[in-house]
# Entry
Amino acid sequence: MSDAHLVWNEFRYQRRTFMRDPQAMFFAVGLPLLYVVIFVSLFGNQRIDFVVNSQPGPLKAHTIMLAGFVAIGVISATFFNLAVDLVQERESGILKRFRGTPLPTWTFIAGHVGTATILGAGVASALIALGRFAYGIPVPIGGLPAILLALVVSSASFCCLAFAFTLTVKKAGGAVPLGTGVTLALYFLSGNFFIVEHPPLILRIVGKLFPVQHLNNALLTPLNPNTSGTRIEWIDLLVIAAWGAGALLIAIRSFRWTPSDQR
# Structure
């Protein structure tokens, strides 16, 4: 059997496993869609009279919200969902048993990452379509290549961060609460839920240190109808890629295949 066939089989297995997990489906797909429906319905038509992340105006709140919720959808699929799966499989002994099989390690990883990446792209597409057709949020055609590039870079980086994040979780039951706590804290720090004109300085500094705010901006620029040109935020994408590269180095050196109680 060829390597490509092995990767395809692993991808199909991981996809079916995800589809049969209601909790994973809710966190990765249902929750971002719910955010759009609730927040855009309540606050979407508000006009923003101040500058947000140096974006040219005028802007309505729904454009900023859509970018933030697309970022949440991508992170939920490629970071949260992947990290939870890996921790649960490690602590249940699946990863340890896998290491004893002739299946190449990279095909197993490719199956997981492929599932997370396709899921992230699907959720992002669904959110953008919902915003465009249900709420009339403008989606400039010229910004689609920049959105695609942001999705590719962020998906790869947050998948790497998921592998590194598993090192901080010791028990299978702790994966969901710890992952939820980390992601929610970063969403609030990065302005995914609320649009504030003058956030405290410490929050601005901390938000800029992490990749979530940079993903928000990399998605907002191509969704902003007042921008032009390539609409690609190269600096933001570089920061996201740097986080991914650092996480990849940590995961290569320290990723654990055996349950915590066997070390």
